[in-house]
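Request: Not sure, any thoughts?
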Amino acid sequence: MRKTPVNFLRRYTNLPSLFDILQNQRITLLDPSTWDDKNDSFFMEKYKDKKGLKTLLGLCFTEKGETYHHWKVFSSGSSGVCVVFKKDELLQYVKNISGTKCNQVSYKRIKQIKDSPPTISEMPFIKRLPYQDEKEFRIIYEHKITIKNHKQISIKLDSIEKITLSPWTPEQLIQPVRQAIKNIADIPVLKTTLLSNEQWKNIGNQIKSV
C-alpha cells in the first residue's frame, strides 16, 4: 500500500522567532553545535570536517502530527508556537539556494551503523533510533569558503498554512498575539487544545454511569 505523501512541515519555536519569520519573510538556519543531542551535533561536526567545510548550518522540522513531546521539548512555555508550513511551497524556496540540502532524518541502531556505516552524504540526516518518534525533516546549508554563523533564506508567507499557539499560552494573550500576526499576514492562528479539549470532555460527560 502506498503511503499518503506528507504535505506539511511543522516548526516548533517561540514568538520572537515567529515574528522574525513573518516580518522579514525568511527562515534562519543556525549552528548545530547548540543542539541538545550531542550525538547528532557530533555527526554534523564530523560531516563538516570530512567535507572540508567552513560553514555547516541546519534547521529542523517534523513531519509528525501534533504531539505533547514536541510542545514540551521544543516549544515549552507561554511563548511557544508551531508554524505549519506547506512542504512543497517551502522547499521551492530552499532548493533555489546554492549549498542547501534537505531530507528526512533516518533513525538507526548503533549496531546498524556499525555493521553498515553511513556514507558521508548521509551523516547530516542520521540520528539514533530512540529519537524516531520525532519524525524529523532537516534542511542544511554548507559552504567550503565562507564562515557563517547563520543563513537566512527568503520565503513567501503563503508557504505557511497556519500558526498554532502553545497549550500554555495564557487566555488573555491569545487575542493580542492573534491581532499582531494579523497585522502582518492573513494566516489562521489557533491555540492548541491538546491539554484541554471540550469535545473530548463532552464524550466523557456522556458516558453512562454503571
